[in-house]
Write a structure and sequence with these properties.
Shape: globular
Number of helices: 12
Order of helices and strands: HHEEEHEHEHEEHEHEHEHEEHHH
Oligomer: single chain
CATH superfamily of the largest domain: Periplasmic binding protein-like II
Radius of gyration: 23 Å
Strand order of the largest sheet: 4-1-5-12-6
CATH architecture of the largest domain: 3-Layer(aba) Sandwich
Number of domains: 2
Helix content: 40-55%
Distance between the termini: 78 Å
Structural class: alpha/beta
CATH class of the largest domain: Alpha Beta
Largest sheet: 5 strands, mixed
Number of strands: 12
Length: 273
């Protein structure tokens, strides 16, 4: 029996199949690259109140959402928000699924190798949540054998601990609420995250936790754009400058973070915007 494969015996059929496959690939590629220029697609993870969240009707709301709305209006475009897990935001931007990331993202040198960042619009830093009876006052106090530190996967807290924590066990969580609950229940010794998140999670668990709110690693948040997209980035930076000078950030702070503004002033910490 002749066992020669079909592709070898039928060169015309093989060529036809290859042409069809190439055509399909080209069609799919062109569809993926087509973009309605009148729409600004912004990626954010809608699980980080009061910056990125949903309301009772499952509609996006929060500080970042209002920023995105104002930016889209400035650019004369319709806004579309894509709810994407935080770890998937940069890949979505790099592949062109979204135009911008506005999701409380810290600018880091590692991330800046993959995407471009706007000017910073918020200043914060990494802080620590510990159990109420934990005497720790610094990272050194929790980076010890037998200690367990919770971080949210893909965040700067995760990046920091990977680089600097040498003795404690690092536990990764998809959701910050789960990490904070582990501290509250005494299952882990500490949770490292940004200042406002640590503050908010401490407020939720005041009976069982304590917040070390003096940042040990200063950070700033920025809007992410595709690497090298200087035209869009220039428009974003111009928007941020005007939005700040016109009181846009002050208004958002008063609307969503009035309690934090007051308490941070009493504690002697500068406010975020």
């Amino acid at each position: 029996m002749d066992t020669t494969n079909t592709r070898t015996r039928n060169p015309r059929l093989s060529s036809l199949i290859l042409c069809l496959l190439a055509g399909i690939a080209l069609f799919l590629s062109s569809c993926a690259s087509e973009r309605d220029d009148s729409v600004l697609i912004v990626g954010m993870e809608l699980s980080y109140p009061p910056f990125e969240m949903t309301d009772e009707s499952n509609k996006p709301t929060g500080i970042s959402v209002e920023m995105a709305e104002a930016l889209a209006s400035r650019l004369g475009k319709e806004l579309r928000i894509e709810n994407i897990p935080f770890a998937g935001l940069i890949p979505s931007l790099r592949t062109g699924k979204i135009d911008l990331i506005i999701s409380s993202m810290t600018r880091t040198e590692e991330r800046a190798q993959s995407i471009s960042f706007s000017d910073p619009y918020l200043h914060t830093g990494l802080c620590i949540l510990v159990s109420k009876d934990n005497p720790a006052t610094s990272v050194a106090d929790i980076d010890m054998p037998g200690k367990r530190i919770a971080v949210k996967q893909g965040t700067t807290g995760h990046i920091y601990t990977t680089k600097h924590v040498r003795n404690a066990e690092i536990l990764m969580f998809d959701k910050e609420a789960a990490a904070a609950l582990e501290v509250s229940q005494g299952k882990v010794d500490a949770f490292i995250y940004d200042q406002i998140s640590i503050y908010l999670n401490w407020k939720k668990h005041q009976e069982t936790t304590r917040a070390l709110l003096n940042p040990f690693n200063e950070e700033s948040w920025a809007i992410g754009a595709q690497l090298g997209n200087t035209e869009l980035l220039g428009k974003v930076n111009a928007f941020l400058e005007d939005y700040k000078s016109s009181g846009g950030f002050d208004a958002l702070g008063d609307k969503y973070l009035s309690e934090q503004k007051r308490e941070f002033k009493e504690l002697g910490f500068p406010f975020f915007f």
